[in-house]
Prior knowledge:
This protein is an alpha/beta fold. 44% of the residues lie in helices and 23% in strands. Strand 1, helix 1 (15-27) and strand 2 (31-35) form a beta-alpha-beta unit.
Amino acid sequence: xxxxNIHIFLLEDDLSFGAVLKSYLELNDYQVTWVxxxxxxxxxxxxxxxxxxxxxxxxxxxxxxxxxxxxxxLDAHVPFIFLTAxxxxxxxxxxxxxxxxxxxTKPFDTEVLICKIxxxxxxxxxxxxxxxxxxxxxxxxFYVQKRNIVxxxxxxxxxxxxxxxxxxxxxxxxxxxxxxTALKKxxxxxxxxxxxSMDVYLSKLRxxxxxxxxVEIKNIHSSGFILQINK
Length: 231
């Protein structure tokens, strides 16, 4: 997909900054729909078709986290980046827990933002292209359709949920898989008991992959997980 076919949804209440950012994105061949009020954001998103969202956090009526959560209900896959002047760890973690792909602190270099946008979009394209029947995970081979992993001729069968979760971890390998993203995509619910159930599946996957020290499923507290492959 060419950049000029990429439609970005921009939520920014600062009229001067919003106008400048919209113009800069358009100079880089992106289409931009700009909304300056959180109360209208979800409706405007619903009425369009977007490939990426840039969401300001500090808004006068409805904050960007709330808008992001509502957008995630409408579209489980559209990537979004939070724009904010807030640098507290709790706010960063909250952004990722909502399902954000990145978090940019103001003031920021617009060239860096463009690079982040391109990286996220390219990752999405790569994930679309690489739908395959097998993945290499260190010394393991994960066969998606057969729902098993094989190492040195030894086979470990996976349950449907184990297989779905491992495939999602592989798609995000060496990057953060937000907890809420996994819960919503696989279970369709992010409640307490569902989260505890997912933790059980993660423990099983860690055990299945434990014979290769280069493979590790890391728990990022209150945020998500990373399938770290050191090869």
